[in-house]
Structure formats: C-alpha cells, structure tokens
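Why do we bother with holo predictions? Because pocket geometry can differ from the apo form. Keep that in mind while you read this record for S-adenosylmethionine.
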Amino acid sequence: MTGLSDSFQRPIDYLRISVTDRCNLRCIYCMPAEGIQLMSHGDILSYEEIHTIAEAAAELGIKKVRITGGEPLVRAGLPKLVQMLAKIKAIDDISLTTNGTLLAHYAAELKSAGLLRVNISLDTLKPDRFKYITRDGNLGDVLAGIEVARSVGLNPTKINVVVMPGINDDELLDFATKTIKDGWHVRFIEHMPFGEEASTSPLFSVNEMRQRLAVLGELEPCSFKGNGPAKYFRLPQAKGTIGFITPVSEHFCFQCNRLRLTADGKLRPCLLSEEEIDLRQSLRSGMSSAKLKRLIKKAVASKPLRHRLAEGCVPQDRSFSQVGG
Ligand code: SAM
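The structure, written out:
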C-alpha cells in the first residue's frame, strides 16, 4: 500500500489541525464557564511551523486537512494559513470547522485563499437557547455566517448539531425541515462524554433521533462528499441531506483515517486517548524533515484500534476545545 497506514491497515490520509485553544463562545458541553487555562502565545505553533508539519505529512500521504480549534477564526490571519496549505501540491482538500460567528466577515477571503468547504457548529435555532448553550453568543451572527459561506461557494456547508437530551432534542424536526426548505446539510452528532461530565451525561442515540424524524417521511440513504464517518440520508423532496454521526452508540474507529495536531504542536493519534507525540520541541530545536517524518510515522503506528468510551476511558488531560474536535 502506498501512503500512510497504521498497524491495523487503516489508511491515514487526513490531518486535523487545531490553530488555537481560544474560543469566543463557552458552549456548556465543551468549555467551563470560567474558560480554560490558555496556552501561552509562545506555546502555539506559528503558521510557518504548521506548514512545515503539513508539508512533511503530505509527503508521507496526508491528502486532506481540516482546520479547527478552539475557534479557528479568532486567530489572526487565518486566510494566510489556508493560502500556505493550498500551495502544498499533495493536499487536495482544505476544510474548516467553525462556530460560524465570524464567518460572514471571513468567508470570501477564505474561499479565495483556497478553502473548499466548511462545517458550522450550531446546536439550536432559537436565539435564547443559543445564548444559553453558548453562554451569551448571538444566533444571528451564525445564521449570517451560514448564508455568506454558501453564497461564496464554500460547498458543501454542513451544519453540525450535537444532540443533547433535555437541551435541544426537541429541535430535531426544525433542523430536518431546514434540509427541505433551505437545502441545508445537517449532521446530527451524538454527544460524547468528555472530562468531568463523563459519567453523568445521558446519551441521545442516533436510533432515537431517527425515530423522532420518522414523522417527516422515509430517510433515503444517499452518498455525500466528506472524509468522515457520517452516514447520509435525504428526506422526500429535500435538496439538503441529513447525516448521522455515532461516536458513542456505534463507534467507527475501524474506518478512522485521521491524525490530530494540537495548537501547541502535539500529534494526537486518537481524539479519545491521551497519547501524544511532541513535534514542537523537536521542530524548534532544528529537527530535520526526515526526523519529523519519523515522528509522524510513529504517531500513525501508535493509533489505537478503537476508543474505550464504553469502558469509561475518557481523556482527562485536555478538553475537546484543546484537542481540536
Ligand atoms: N469552534 C469550532 C466549532 O465550534 O466548530 C471548532 C472547535 S469545536 C471543539 C468542534 C466541534 O466539537 C463542534 O462541532 C462541537 O460541537 C464539537 N464538540 C465539542 N464537545 C463535544 C462533545 N462532548 N461531544 C460531541 N461533540 C463535541
């Protein structure tokens, strides 16, 4: 097999790059109200360092990158990074995960820099509830971001909804209706228990979601562009799609194709394991490209077979926003 593959013969061609641990929202399930202990500016990789790592990874077989955070758009000059990554020939897909609040402002510039598509996290369509979930965010900013992203051609624009019982599960039908009325591509994601809330958070499984949606008609399976584990469907008459992502009820580790780079330069073979390999220190002490590639291969080789959420093994070292979800 050419390219990278791990010890379980999974091809690895996808790198998620977190560019910051900072966020302008404080979603109740992602960050504590008081925020997190932030990395210092000196700890965070420069765009040049990120580019060096992405280039080495691309030479080994990485073809797709997704920029994430924290909130990636709070980092100054993000279009510049997109432009630098777009020049790496082997990388043919650059995407972004964002909360959308600053997207109306940056979408056009990101598109011209080489960004292809965007995922926007949005857990409610109700302004007051949005304020509650995000601890004071403004829903209007995100809706504007979605419109501008679509109009400048960041397609597909996907809307990611983390479904939480008792918080937003009553909005499944509203989101699904958006796939019919406005052609939205909506993905419902099971909430993953992370950190301290691990033992207390109830699961709203994809099976329950599908039962709720049945009143809108039969979900027809369909294929849809993406590099991840979502399964896609379409409602009758809908231009948009509904995707389901089941990290908890039906793990998809057997098809995991990704590595994660944290904002402070650690390569993380698995979102749900604390293992990581430090690239920053070696990079800053003048490591050769050959050594960098060896470290990337080491991270790939150490990818675990699967996560252990069901056994209660949840990473405690970093929050979701610090890994780059
Ligand atoms: N700020 C960006 C955003 O909001 O998309 C990128 C970072 S955010 C950590 C990435 C994604 O992780 C968001 O879609 C968020 O909803 C999701 N997320 C955070 N904590 C989660 C959890 N415990 N379970 C499932 N998804 C989670």
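The longest helix spans residues 47-60.
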